[in-house]
Amino acid sequence: MKQTRLGLFLAAILWISGCLGCSDDNNHSGNGTDDTKTDAQTDTASDSMSDTASSTAIASSDSVSSTDTLTASDSESGAIVDTASDSEWDTIDVLDTTVTVEIDTGTGLDVQQTCALRSDIYAEEVLDAATGSQGSVSDTIILNHFGWRPTDEKIAAIRGLSAVSVELRRAADDSLVSTYTSSAAIDDEDSVQSYSTVDFSEITTQGNYYLYLPNTSERSYAFRIHPDVYGIVGAVAMKSFYYQRCNHSKELPYASDAILGAAGIGGNWVDTVCHDDDFAVTPGPDSANNGTLDLHGGWHDAGDYQKTLWGRGLPVMLFAYEINPAAWSDAQLNIPESGNCVPDILDELSWELDFYVRMQRPDGHFMSSTKGHDGSVVSPPGQSDEARAYFDGTSPSGDGWSGGGVTIAAATGNAVVSLAHAAIVFALAGADARAQIYAKSALKGWQWLAGASLSNEEEILQRKVAAAAVYRLSPETNSAAQVVSSISWDDWEGGLPWNVTPSDGTLSVAAWHMLLNSHVDSTTIDAIRAAAGEAIVDRGMQQAGIFGGMYGDASNPWEWGWGSNRQNAQYGANFLMAHHFGIRGSYTLDEVAMQGRKYAHYMMGMNAMNMVYLTNMAAYGGEHSSFQIYHAWFSYTAGGNTDGNDSYNGIPATVTDPLYPYYPDDDQVSTYGPAPGLVPGGPNMYYGGAYDIPGLDAPATSYRDWSIGCDWSAQDNACLSASWEITEPMNAYQGPFILLISFLM
Question: What is the H or E stretch that residue 227 is in?
């Protein structure tokens, strides 16, 4: 079915663009090494990479005229008309385990497809922290709060204790399963604390358990051993983008915490359509005047309501589907589009991608942002009255505007790499009409970007990344081929040996596109594999510790700054991408995979804060998660100078966590808590506010779960709180976690 659909798509795009010599594609579903690959298979993976890697030759962009329209266009303003409308994938009532829908291929040859709906459920009882009667829950025992798959390595940490007795007990009846002695304690550079470890990987029987310290009568949070223990974590994290949708209502049954058979605990995040001005928005100060434009769609970028075309997580999330398609399915996320024979992750991504298409101007470039300021009402988004505007120029900051400094070239580079990749992925998923629109938009954007005069190093690098995606999409595009040939892989564009780490989310994207492109010559492939082995594997392994590990220490935090959770998730994602391609540096593939998984465990609780770095996960077994974040909807009502918002800020009244509040002043209890699955910024040792952060003397403990926004001090002429430096979520943080967790789902 994939090849049939891809053939229809290629025929259509050939007709549209007049492309000659475009080739079909092998399977893009991620043929490479998997989590069980051993070193003996490495040479085979390397030798066959050109066979299993693939490039979808869709169109020749050098022949696309700047006068070509991507979609129908308003005659005077040049405003993009939404031809990639919601009607392509109609929402239907899900009544059975299979459904038949009509697919618009965009070729005039509509087809019917019958597909199975996602039927797996969260079968195990959701555990709470009080499960088990032995001792009291404490943060001495640190582990992945959700648990492990049966065949995973299962390692927990014991804070401040060495060689102590540790019992594994069943949660249902407290029965003893096994007794262990923890290792000798070792120092952890990132937290400036010592930990011993206990390894109970031998336990593979499915069930619910907890760890218990008989000498101190302390126990861990309960956890599960189950093959699909991470499936619901990934689904909830991806579902969080639904709550970030701009210009879209949030309605039941979708705006709840019921998902994949988990009934939830009564969460309700209903809201009306927000920011109606985006459907007919006018230019902001100092922007080029393109008239009134329809720029609806897209996600709110972070804790505010802007939509700026900087890093928004799309490039890595498209890999999450392409490399790990089995992790994603239709009717998985409980969103309005569920039940249309298209994986829900792609439905969600299309809400963002369609916005990108609307942001494109007739000459090919993309505007930098659509956003608002000076609102007197903040929460919920549907009642926000901020004045909206678009910016066809560098996005502003200050004077009430956030998300500043993004240039037209940077916005265009970000949009092109995302749309080019989306054209490949959506075609393979059978969403041909959207794939055609994304391909043409990407190629026209590339034509502008290729001819732009750039002096900023970041813009130049982003153009190289975009070129790698375009060259994979359209190998006939000579300008893209020329740009990718200029990439210095031997030293990772000057990053090697000392200035690159596995948190790289830019050039690594280009590397993965090149490795998936069968048109790339073997010499370049070998250079990329060698450089990735050094830049990602070897450099990352230098910092390997109990909880994963990143560059920085108490004297120089380095990567433990703003958005450290993005860095941690990107480390793990890049390690597992390297493993997928058989890249091992100086280590074994098993070591590469295990190190990558450590960062996933870190995000799910195996960290110095014993914290699930996702919001409101109690309904799915993660009680000790984030309940207070800097977010315009979930944390405050107006001004950001109080905790505010009794509906969404604080632990839900139905949730019990013996260790809440995490800080004495942060004891807020709310009706629902924030929407589940958002990734907060994370520990930030560079925090510049005046509020007390108890662990600010070490990188990995520089975290506090609180939401007060500014708390302006006229005397200091500064915001005293600035919680956005630590707890604000952002699409750029969410994307790497989605890619990381997709390897475990």
Answer: none
Contact 169, 209 (CB under 8 A): yes
Peptide bond preceding 661: is omega within 30 degrees of 0, i.e. cis? yes
Low-confidence ranges of the chain (pLDDT < 70): 1-132, 637-643
Report the C-alpha gap between 662 and 611 in whole angstroms: 10
Residue 321 is which amino acid?
Y
Measure Cα distances from 220 to 142, 471, 611, 675 in Å. 7, 50, 12, 25
With tokens 């952890």, the residue in question is: 188
Burial class of residue 343 (count of CB atoms within 10 Å of its CB; 0-12, 13-18, 19+): buried
Nearest to 461 by CA among 504, 520, 423: 504
Tell me the two tokens of residue 285. 């100060």
Burial 597-623 (b: 16+ CB within 10 A, else e): bbbbbbbbbbbbbbbbbbbbbbbbbbb
**What residues are paired with 387 via a beta bridge?**
373
Smallest CA-to-CA distance from 197 within 247, 226, 159, 229 is with 159
Measured at the alpha carbon of residue 587, what is the angle toward residues 584 and 593, in degrees to the nearest 5?
65
Work out the burial of residue 33: count CB atoms within 10 Å of its CB; fewer than 13 is exposed, 13-18 middle, 19 or more buried. buried
Token output for 403: 């998300």
Please give the structure tokens belonging to residue 88.
């392509």
In angstroms and rounded to an integer, the radius of gyration of the C-alpha atoms of the chain is: 25
pLDDT at res. 400: 79
Q: Do residues 310 and 414 lie in contact, with contact meaning Cβ atoms separated by under 8 Å?
A: yes
CA distance 607 to 613: 9
Give me the amino acid identity at 28. Answer: H
CB within 8 Å of 664: residues ≥ 6 apart = none
The C-alpha angle 370, 398, 293, rounded to 5 degrees, equals 15
Distance CA 398, CA 393 (A): 15
Taking alpha carbons only, the member of 217, 220, 199, 34 closest to residue 546 is: 199
In degrees, rounded to 5, the angle at the alpha carbon of residue 528 between the alpha carbons of residues 493 and 601 is 95
Q: Residue 538 in contact with residue 585, Cβ under 8 Å?
A: yes
Give 167-189 as a 3 state SS string: EEEECCCCCEEEEEECCCCEEEC
In angstroms, the CA 35 to CA 574 distance is 14
Residue 425 one-letter amino acid: V
Residue 169 parent element (H or E): strand 165-170
pLDDT (tens digit per residue) in 608-657: 999 999 999 999 999 999 999 999 999 976 655 666 789 999 999 999 99
Is 670 in contact with 637 (CB distance < 8 Å)? no
β-pair partners for 188: 193
Q: What is the pLDDT of residue 527?
A: 98
pLDDT in tens, 427-463: 999 899 999 999 999 999 999 999 999 989 999 999 9
- Distance in angstroms (rounded) separating the CA atoms of residues 351 and 497: 39
User: In angstroms, rounded to a whole number, what is the distance separating the alpha carbons of residues 257 and 38?
Assistant: 39
Q: Which residue has the tokens 């009934």?
A: 263
Q: What angle do CA 147, 148, 151 make, to 5 degrees?
A: 160
Q: What distance in Å separates the CA atoms of residue 595 and residue 591, rounded to the nearest whole number?
A: 6
**Alpha carbons 103 and 692: distance in angstroms, whole number:** 55
Structure token digits, residue 113: 């497809």
User: b/e per residue, 429-455, with b = 16+ CB within 10 A?
Assistant: bbbbbbbbbbbbbbbbbbbbbbeeebe
Amino acid at 301: D
Is 471:484 a contact under the CB 8 Å cutoff? yes
Is the bond into 380 cis (omega within 30 degrees of 0)? yes
Q: Is 6:29 a contact under the CB 8 Å cutoff?
A: no
